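Hey, can you fold this one?
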Amino acid sequence: MEYRQLGGSGFMVPALCLGTGTFGGRGEFFRAWGGADVAEATRLVDICLEAGLTMFDSADVYSGGLAEEILGQAIRGRRDQVIISTKGTFRSGPGPNDVGSSRHHLIRAVEGSLRRLGTDFIDLYQLHGFDALTPVEEVLHTLDDLVAAGKIRYIGCSNFSGWHLMKSLAASDRYGLPRYVAHQAYYSLIGRDYEWELMPLALDQKVGAVVWSPLGWGRLTGKIRRGAALPEISRLRSKPVAESGPPVGEEYLYRVVDALDEVAGETGKSVPQVALNWLLRRPSVATVIIGARNEAQLSENLAAVGWALTPEQVGRLDAASAKTPPYPYWHQHGFRARNPVPV
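Sure. Predicted structure:
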């Protein structure tokens, strides 16, 4: 397993990370993703560690905290072998302070995650979303206190806009507070919006991308084809899941899948393996979160590393998935000599 530097920190993370959204299956939304119990999760962790994948990502809202509990039990006795990342900010209870990134909620969220995970510290703690009602200075001072207390080691964010992230980084620099070294962001061959502003920002400010849903919300599994019905087992059959995911036009999706099929045939790899390998070649990407309902899916996704697409194959996938970016990005592309675009 290849290891990469996480943003501007000295911390090294594996190129692939296992997401735990499939652990627990509590509630209609997460039941559509999977329902691994402790025994199944432990086996998945075993396979990951054998392959050199040591990083596991969770969140306090995954199955209402059950995913963290299952992960904690699955790694029991081998905490020193793994990297744990988890997230907080989203609503965790009915009260007015059970949501957001206030000092009150963040401290309670971190303590709750530590308890469920059965650990003394979290390697990477990420804000699950931006809280515009809480001053960024309050958020960062709170995270600084948690770092000083030894409860978290590195901080990151997720689903921030460019200005959210830059405002936070500027405040960190101004007050000598910890900087976000990771941004957990949606990025895939059918969702390349990350490249327009967040990628240039990440490269300039040394923020590593932790990519979520790299297979486009389950659309690049190789099971969705032009004119074919959805597979019997697919998260997209769940209305809450389908409606909450990123919209993708059918013709655009099939154009990308056709290109993936072509490259998969040339390489002898599967469609998801090609899609994941493409992501691993992108600038700023530190690690890609893979999900798995079972051992077979996990083994297939793990095989996305250890080989590389050719530049020509990457170019074809780039062309098939290209979209005209919104203003001002399309205008900046015409001024590359003084305003270089990363991809």
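The domain at 3-335 is CATH 3.20.20.100 (TIM Barrel). Let me know if you want another pass with a different chain boundary.
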